[in-house]
Amino acid sequence: AFDSGEYNIGNMANSLTLGCDCLGEIKYFDGITTDSHGNPWTIENAICMHEEDDSILWKHFDFREGTAETRRSRKLVISFIATVANYEYAFYWHLFLDGSIEFLVKATGILSTAAQKPGEKTPYGQTLNNDGLYGPIHQHMFNVRMDFEIDGPKNVVYEVDMEIPENNPTHTAFKAVDRLLETEQAAIRKADHDKHRFWKIANRDSRNLVDEPVAYRLIPTNAITLAAGDESFVSKRAQFARNNLWVTAYDRTERFAAGEFPNQATGADDGLHIWTQADRNIVDEDLVVWYTFGMHHVVRLEDWPVMPRQNIGFMLEPHGFFNQNPTLNLPSSATPSDHCNSTTTNHCSS
Ligand SMILES: [Cu+2]
């Protein structure tokens, strides 16, 4: 099932309540959507924005002076939670003080279960009890469409891999090598842990301190692909899920990875795999980056009867976008009444 395109996940957004889903100073936004007849419909408090403490951002203890400087990280959290029948998907954008951006899906709710003969154990799932209940192994696939504008509309994407040079007498040298992705076909890529691969979206007309293009990097965490075989019906319909990275030249009609109308679609007409057949130039163009990730859910006993939330997501980090750490001017987060800031008996910095 396409939870976004078929179930219409936005219409399943919860109305959030203070103190349960978000904490602290909160700004709520209503969700304005449409019912099945096209009539406008408001979901009150569908989107929540608030700030959270996020541990330390940077620190250094000077062992000669006996002093320490610490700055705490805070993140601006923008979230909504959709209930899709048995399951909850909570979507979070985290905006950090150092320019990093995290996208997380928190998966929780109730497993979709199936029956087997009591006393038997299927290899295709986790037996949950001795009464004939099991949770099938399954996947949750996500694709995020990102219309990048790194310091302007003309961007490029590099694939960055670790490479080991041939002239390497101590066998300890390694380097990061940029490879420019020039066309849409060349930019259909998979993550590669052995090469410590990431992708870098850059603006070659905008240079940083050391004359390199300003850039953000996409860290491909939770970079799974579809487990179902290429010949399966699900794979033909969800071809976006067969690769982790897609890059397209911007077209305002290309909005959804599986196409505009996924209901009953065969996958033969629309979607990323169709658009990229044009193999358009993506060098110094207005680009859209599509990232496929997800959760390969091998069910465990602890997921029953309600599943502790599992985080699935990825990071966008400035990579030469700033000329130095952009958080040097952060005030110390301690307050006068805080034990961290006592000038006489400061156990945090003395
Ligand atoms: Cu699951």
Number of strands: 16
Bin the helical content: under 10%
> What is the spatial order of strands in the main beta sheet?
1-2-3-4-5-16-13-12-10-11
| Main sheet attributes: strand count, strand direction, barrel closure | 10 strands, antiparallel
Mean pLDDT: 93
Structural class: mainly beta
Strand content: 35-45%
Radius of gyration: 24 Å
Which descriptor suits the 3D outline? Answer: globular
Number of helices: 2
Provide the list of bound ligands, each named once: copper (II) ion
Which regions are unreliable across 5 or more consecutive residues at pLDDT < 50?
341-350
N-to-C CA distance: 57 Å
Order of helices and strands: EEEEEEEEEEEEEHEHEE
Characteristic terms for this protein:
disordered C terminus; three-stranded antiparallel β-sheet; mainly beta; binds copper (II) ion; 350 residues
Summarize the structure.
By secondary structure, the protein is an all-beta fold. Helices cover 3% and strands 42% of the residues. The radius of gyration is 24 Å and the shape is globular.
Describe this structure in words.
It is a single chain. The protein has 350 residues and is mainly β. It is built from 2 helices and 16 strands. It has helices at 233-237, 272-275, and strands at 26-34, 40-62, 67-84, 87-96, 101-109, 114-115, 125-127, 133-136, 138-146, 156-163, 175-180, 198-207, 213-219, 245-249, 287-297, 307-318. Strands 1-2-3-4-5-16-13-12-10-11 form a 10-stranded antiparallel sheet, with no helix packed on it. A 3-stranded antiparallel sheet has the order 6-8-7, with no helix packed on it. The longest helix has 5 residues, at 233-237. The structure holds copper (II) ion (CU). Copper (II) ion is lined by residues 138, 140, 297.
